[in-house]
Amino acid sequence: MLLPPLYAITDRTVSGLDDVSEIAVRLFRVGVRCVQVREKTMPDRDLLGAVEAVRGLAPADSAVLVNDRVDIARVAGVGVHLGQEDLPAAEARRLLPEALIGVSTHDLEAAGRAFLDPAPDYVAFGPVFESGTKTLRSARGIEELSRVAAIRTKPLVAIGGITAENLDEVFEAGADAVAMVGGLLGAGALESNARRVLDRIRIRRPPGRIYLVGFMGCGKTAIGRRLAARLAVPFVDVDAEIERTSGRTVRALFEESGEPAFREREAVFLAGTESLADAVVATGGGAYVPEANRRQMLRLGRVVFLDVPFPVLRERLREKTDRPLFQSVEQAARLFAERDPFYRMGSLRVTLQGNETLDEAADRVLCALESPSLAASSG
User: Fold this and answer.
1) How far apart are the C-alpha atoms of 239 and 299, rounded to whole Å?
2) What is the pTM of this model?
């Protein structure tokens, strides 16, 4: 069982939000894929409703758990996280044979016993640092976490005082995932907090080459720049590189040499991206149409099709005069219809409505890359 590297825990007080499902859905949208509902003061009826609501909103690749309450987990059809004073994991497993079950531990000896117990799927250890939400136990520290990691036989979740600033040392100590409350929910800034944490995790796992394809005006350059910045990898705009090295605009090159000659030049630049181990590459609107280019990109990395409705593209293109193949809205519509089937060949399709912020669009691309089986694709 593989846990996502970021494990979120709800807390209405810390987040400043009364609705648990709002906390969860805002985290899911950014890319969080494991949420534990921990609301100890909520009446049972309300807790059950909140857990069921979170389960209903969760993407298919997500894990949802409830803290302590095996009965709620059984009724709601979710996993459960157990403290050392809760129902033993073996009894929980008997009641929840297929559910995700985790247990908390606070010292090396208890962690060792939990790793040997076949009932739980993962073991949480902490608090690693002083926690702002649980103050009953003192921090165990990175060295103790390292000792626990050295004996682990199933996924290890570090918890307690973890933030974007210290999570690198937590992972380097051997944790497989980090559970966070204040570091994610603080000040109600859920999206920005989660992006910062997720991106630091992603930077630890180089993405390889990502090729953005799609029709003119779909946002390949703007979204590509934001993706590259968040992943801390080079950004390559193929059209911009061609213009820089030739000293001519793409439109001028089309007019002087014709489209076939431009496509040959484009293919050379695409081949040159092989020299970059990791990069985000924005391609021209027609770059993915030639079969040789498609094969090249699919061989070198992952291809993401930014699928934006044509009416949105039409409005964006009305003021553009630098597009070499844009002559009129009618001509653009015909070109869009011709190219659309090619964009779908072997790519991950990310559907955008055109009103997303750059970070929201980047979130969708990153989620598709991290869960390709759930992204719209064809091949």
Assistant:
1) 21
2) 0.92
